[in-house]
Amino acid sequence: MADTVCVNQITVVSYNMHGFNQGYVTMDELINSVNPDVFLCQEHWLTPANLHKFDDRFSNYFCFGCSAMMNKIETGPLSGRPYGGIMVLIKKSLRSITETIHCEERFAIIKIANYIFINVYLPCEGSKDRNLICETLLADIMAWREQYCHLKCLIAGDFNANLNIVDNAVVKRINKFASSLSLFRSDVLFPNAGKATYISSSLQNQSYIDYMLISCCDNMLDFSVYEPDINYSDHLPIMCTLACCFDRPNDDSTSAKVKCDIPAASNYDGTRLTPSLTIYIPVLL
Question: Domains of the chain (ranges plus CATH)?
Fold first, then answer.
């Protein structure tokens, strides 16, 4: 029998790293100053063989995510600009109430307590088949959300679109998706936090393209765009604080449940699971 325990808050950060080497410094600062419970990271640019860098660098967290570079590696020696990749970091103290659910190249889903957290990275303007990718990805996420409709939901990440520009086809699709799932924008709930999240000094351009969408607006206690002292990414982290409750098991188990719909899920060493996907999942202790 489980004991119901009320948690005052869970702090979640979403951050486009613009490469692991560019982003880890800011994540270190966030850990020292804010100590988030969950990181939802996009664009780490790591190959499958280098995913262990998250584990090596952030020893108080366990990781769930994948590389976006498997197909490129299979075609021969690496050349050109790296890209993509998503990773979720969860505090090891939350293992007993964490369940890893699903991971693809552009989104990952985990369950913590009475929430599902969905980390997303949508294609940028100019990407090949952008509209089709967005349509397919949002349809897949909607299906997963409906499967876990009994849980509260937070969807966060780099949307690569300003949701206030309503005459854009991708924006229309995203806004329709959010409306269909009765999701609220954190930047609307907390308008004082509405500064730019993408800032490119070289292009002299900035915009708001990173978002958090939540199903239960009353449970979002705070939201902000974090301005680090040192940031080598062209994105700023966004951060929220959530009220949360969970059932704590009576046993002393610290292992996270792993529920992965990809066949032959192995262990935490980045074992290849499909011809085109390498995935990190927590070790079962």
Answer: 3-280 (3.60.10.10)
